[in-house]
């Protein structure tokens, strides 16, 4: 007859849920402490918030829509993936497989932000200019313009990366 191990039996082996979930259950904390995810979300939120101010500095007008839009300074995508990778590196070490995965993910996201998405935005800008030159009777003259601010310049990507590193390091030092 096969034996079945119950949760009580597993808990009595000394590990409890620690072996399953990586950390002991905490009765005083509603959410488990997860430095990488908190660092990533905080870096994303800060980058989106900072876009309002960098947009004001550049264009001398307030635009709260920048908090929920893509593109601009700093790159929230870069800040998010960099904070995630750095936090994993700080917690698990640079030799951990999770760190390697996070670094590769960060490189792909940052390359995409400054490459593919940036050029797609530039193409949208050109297409919008072409459509504006159509005569009013042309069927495409009333088409809604394409979004032009999709990607990031390399400086915006780098600024997002630096923000992500700083957030992860500060989160680690305060925990």
Automatic annotation (TrEMBL):
| Bilayer-crossing regions | 30-50, 149-171
Presence of keyword Membrane:
yes
Does Transmembrane helix appear among the keywords? Answer: yes
Superkingdom to which the source organism belongs: Eukaryota
InterPro entries (alphabetical): DUF212
Alphabetical keyword list: Membrane, Transmembrane, Transmembrane helix
Please identify the protein, giving its name as recorded. Phosphatidic acid phosphatase type 2/haloperoxidase domain-containing protein
**Record organism:** Capsella rubella
């Amino acid at each position: 007859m096969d034996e079945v191990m119950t949760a009580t039996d597993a808990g009595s082996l000394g590990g409890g849920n620690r072996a399953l979930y990586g950390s002991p259950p905490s009765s005083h904390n509603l959410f488990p402490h997860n430095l990488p995810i908190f660092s990533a979300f905080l870096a994303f939120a800060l980058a989106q918030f900072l876009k309002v101010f960098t947009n004001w500095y550049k264009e001398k007008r307030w635009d709260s829509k920048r908090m929920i839009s893509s593109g601009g300074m700093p790159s929230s995508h870069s800040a998010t993936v960099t904070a995630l990778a750095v936090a994993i590196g700080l917690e698990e070490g640079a030799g951990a497989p999770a760190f390697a995965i996070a670094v590769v993910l960060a490189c792909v996201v940052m390359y995409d932000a400054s490459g593919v998405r940036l050029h797609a935005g530039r193409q949208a800008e050109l297409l919008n200019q072409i459509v504006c030159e159509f005569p009013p009777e042309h069927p495409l003259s009333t088409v809604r313009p394409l979004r032009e601010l999709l990607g990031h310049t390399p400086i915006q990507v780098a600024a997002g990366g630096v923000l992500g590193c700083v957030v992860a390091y500060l989160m680690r030092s305060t925990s």
